[in-house]
Amino acid sequence: MSSNNSNLNITTDSKILKSSTIPTLISGPCSAESEEQMLQTARGLINDHRVHIFRAGIWKPRTRPGLFEGVGRVGLEWLRTVKQETGLPTAVEVANAQHVEEALEYGVDILWVGARTTVNPFSVQEVADALQGVDIPVLVKNPVNPDIQLWLGALERLNRAGITDLGLIHRGFSTPNNKPYRNHPKWETIQQIRSLAPGIPLFCDPSHIAGRRDLLETVSQQALHLGVDGLMIESHINPDVALSDASQQVTPEGLTKLLNALDLDHEHVASPEQLQDLRSLIDRLDHDLINLLFLRSDVSKRIGEYKRANALDIFQAGRWKELVEDRVRLANEVGVDEGFIRAILDAIHQHSIGVQNEVINAAATSPKKEAIK
Ligand code: PEP
Ligand code: MN
Predict the structure, then answer these.
(1) C-alpha triplet 117, 242, 252: angle, nearest 5°
(2) CB of 138 closer than 8 Å to CB of 103
(3) Is residue 33, in this structure, part of any structural domain at all?
(4) Atom of ligand 1 minimally distant from the CA of 61
């Protein structure tokens, strides 16, 4: 697709950037800090199937020196572990050729150019040159200053290096008065960049616009009303002790609450291609469900063995009552119909009792150890 106003010639046929649901959600910590922090955050995030991509800053471009500047290469190892464990594609910020080389070496799936890099054509060109001949999606954040041409120029440089899977991230601008935001959204720029780079997926990064957790909902909703294709929201297992951007990060549970509060489908009806994506998502979720049911039934079996060894009844009414109350509470919290969840729990419970009966009956009918001797 090309536009009259730029030299872009971009296909947006990216498997990763094209969302499996609308909008595409990228989440993860501002900075990689430790393997535990990364894994715990990612494990929390995959509880919410609306998260598609895991982000983490490995090299942090700080406005002032002496602040936490990122863990570097070791963070890429943690990121690889996150991907292996959760299956989430990963994304990192790159600002020079060395970052690109290391990120590619560790199999990072998506790269993004940060706001402090987009401002500098030399840096963008260095990143573009390092990407020559590489097939990888690249997202470009708007420059810190409200200069749309600079933003577009970065897209063009990457595109001329052969990158066609491009996306934009609107993260707000530094203006003389950003209040109450950290970076002013200047919402009109969304329309401007769209008309200059039509067809390029556009994400919003409410975290860097808001700068504070309590503004995330309003900013995210506004971006969705403007029809953005995705959101990048920073999350951290323990935001209060985060080494960067502590006040704007949310816990994985906080992210779920935020997403629940948003009208995510605003003015979107799935297209035929998106229907295909939605079906693939259903397939993945069903596979997850079956794997989880297998694990659960295996745990039931072990509980059955314990009950047999300790001569306990299979059905423990008190435990079952508590379990149902807990699951119904969670269902109500996340918006799953209560009757539906009760019916599923009943089926699971019946099966679990069946599994435990089998364990006990098998023990009763199997030859005694003495007899084998
Ligand atoms: C970030 O995503 O953590 C970051 C540094 O963002 P930005 O480039 O938008 O300031
Ligand atoms: Mn950040």
Answers:
(1) 95
(2) no
(3) yes
(4) 5
Ligand 1 site, residue 170, Cβ cutoff 6 A: no
Provide the residue range defining the domain that includes 92. 2-261
CA atoms within 13 Å, Cβ hemisphere of 134? 22
pLDDT single digits (tens) 146-187: 999 999 999 999 999 999 999 999 999 999 989 899 999 999
> Nearest C-alpha to atom 1 of ligand 1 is from which residue?
30
Distance CA 13, CA 9 (A): 12
| 372 within some domain | no
Block residue for tokens 């508590």: 322
- Contact by Cβ (8 Å): 167, 197: no
Q: How many independent structural domains does the chain possess? A: 2
Residue 243 domain-assigned?
A: yes
Q: Which atom of ligand 1 is nearest to the CA of 171?
A: 9
Residue 38 banded pLDDT, cuts 50, 70, 90 = very high
Q: Evaluate whether 223 touches 204 at the Cβ level (below 8 Å).
A: yes
Same-domain status, 230 and 313: no
